[in-house]
TrEMBL record:
Residue ranges the record marks as coiled coil: 79-167
Pfam families from the UniProt entry: Fibrinogen_C (PF00147)
One Gene Ontology CC term in the entry: extracellular space
Domain Fibrinogen C-terminal: 234-452
Organism: Drosophila persimilis
Gene3D superfamilies tied to this protein: Gamma Fibrinogen, chain A, domain 1 (3.90.215.10)
Protein name: GL26043
Domain of life: Eukaryota
Signal peptide range: 1-17
Keyword vocabulary terms for this entry: Coiled coil, Disulfide bond, Signal
Matching SUPFAM superfamilies: Fibrinogen C-terminal domain-like (SSF56496)
Amino acid sequence: MRSSGFVVFIFWLLLQGESFLASGDREIYLPQELSIEDQCSEYCFSVVKLFFDHFIRSKVASDANGDLKNKIYLLETQLKNKDEEIKLKNQQIADKDEQIKREQFEAKINSSEAEIIKLNATIEKNELKSSRIIDLETQIKEYQLQLNNKTEDIKAFTVRIKLLETETNKSRDELISTKEEIEKCHAKIKDQEVEIKHGQDQLAIKEGLLKAFESTVREKESQFKNLTSETELLRGKYEASSCLPFVNSTNVHSIRLFDTDPFIVHCCSNVSGSGWTLIQRRVNANENFNRSWTDYKMGFGDLRENFFLGLEKIHRMTLLQPHELYIQLQDVNGSTRYARYDDFKIGSEEEAYELISLGKYSGTAGDSLTKFQLNMKFSTLDRDNDANVKRNCAKMFGGGWWFSACGRSHLNGNYYKDGTCEVRDGIIWATWKDYDFTISLTFSQMMIRPKTL
Ligand SMILES: *[C@@H]1O[C@H](CO)[C@@H](O)[C@H](O)[C@H]1NC(C)=O
Ligand SMILES: *[C@@H]1O[C@H](CO)[C@@H](O)[C@H](O)[C@H]1NC(C)=O
Ligand SMILES: *[C@@H]1O[C@H](CO)[C@@H](O)[C@H](O)[C@H]1NC(C)=O
Ligand SMILES: *[C@@H]1O[C@H](CO)[C@@H](O)[C@H](O)[C@H]1NC(C)=O
Ligand SMILES: *[C@@H]1O[C@H](CO)[C@@H](O)[C@H](O)[C@H]1NC(C)=O
Ligand SMILES: *[C@@H]1O[C@H](CO)[C@@H](O)[C@H](O)[C@H]1NC(C)=O
Ligand SMILES: *[C@@H]1O[C@H](CO)[C@@H](O)[C@H](O)[C@H]1NC(C)=O
Ligand SMILES: *[C@@H]1O[C@H](CO)[C@@H](O)[C@H](O)[C@H]1NC(C)=O
Ligand SMILES: *[C@@H]1O[C@H](CO)[C@@H](O)[C@H](O)[C@H]1NC(C)=O
């Protein structure tokens, strides 16, 4: 090893030769204050020392020789310079080492730093992460809060919804109940309509029934009248031969004479006592009195209005027993008068129903019969029995009567509502109206009654 180091040194010396030799003219001087170790860096020391020691020994040997001495001195100086240089170089090497070391360290530090940075970055990352986690957690918390709030809200909404539902249900229930009530009302109205209809039908039925009933009543009335008539007929058959038994009655009754069938008469008890039988009546112009002999014989007209009972009946009635005659009269002004005869009788058809008897007159109308009509036969338009040789009084003045040469009375003349007529053709009772033959009476009734002794 020593030899290889030496060879290196020689090599190095050859390279540095010039400067090493240039320092030779100075005294070889070995600095005492610096140890060899100090003069040489530890690096070169071990290498150079051997050589150096050898060199010193060689110097000493060659001192004798001045040239050599100078040369050595030069060499020594050069060596010294070289030492310096070595020292410098060593220093430089050390510096370099130092620098290398420092750079290494720095690199280490740099790498450490990088690592730290890396780590810090990691840490930071982690921190970031954790902060993010925290953030997230916070957010989650907030979200939870919000969620809670939402849950609360939802709860509140649920409650509200429930409330609304309840209200809706209530409203719906009310609506339903209202609807039901309306339906009930409709049903009721319908029922009532039906009832009304029913009532109307019932009413119609009732009306029908009433009408039927009324007609039945009318029929019954008619039947009753018929029955009454029949009863009267029967009663007349066995009891009545005049109106006398029908005391105080002014109505129709049936009488029967000994030799006739029962017939109906109109009794009058409200004019001059009870029991009069109407034989003639004039109240209006509804009946025509200008009729034939047969009509006057059999009678005609309506017993309750205008009629003539019939000469045959009157004859038979007056034949049996003495009768009174009562004549009631009224003029157009409403005044009434009467004429009464106490023994009225007419003959048979063979006698032309002659007015046989009148009896004694009494009354207010005057006697318009006795003087000209007594003992006269009955005349009609078709049976001229009067005393007028030239004319038929009945035909001239209309209606049948006991005409003479016509006479002072004619109660079967034409009816004039206004109470005036052509001469003699009206309802005449001349003694009342001072023989004014143009005054026609508007009411007359002739009635007879058996004389009670
Ligand atoms: C260390 O880092 C510094 C600054 O970043 C840089 O100037 C230097 O050259 C680095 N050293 C090494 C050995 O990488
Ligand atoms: C690590 O990072 C934090 C935050 O960025 C910074 O304050 C700190 O100085 C860094 N440390 C190093 C050694 O780079
Ligand atoms: C939750 O609700 C309360 C009251 O309504 C409100 O003050 C609060 O800000 C809400 N919070 C959130 C996170 O929405
Ligand atoms: C509302 O009515 C419906 C149907 O009848 C029923 O299902 C529901 O429970 C009712 N709600 C309330 C709050 O009464
Ligand atoms: C009543 O008598 C008349 C005449 O006699 C007759 O036409 C009528 O049918 C009778 N009425 C009744 C209901 O018997
Ligand atoms: C008839 O009428 C008279 C007078 O009004 C009366 O006194 C008499 O009692 C009545 N007779 C009958 C049977 O009704
Ligand atoms: C008598 O009775 C009849 C029928 O009831 C009536 O029309 C007449 O006016 C009455 N006469 C008198 C004088 O009362
Ligand atoms: C009815 O009365 C009027 C006026 O008082 C009179 O002019 C007329 O002659 C009267 N008629 C009869 C029939 O008495
Ligand atoms: C009565 O009747 C006959 C026959 O119809 C007629 O010629 C005569 O003129 C009538 N007399 C009166 C007064 O109306």
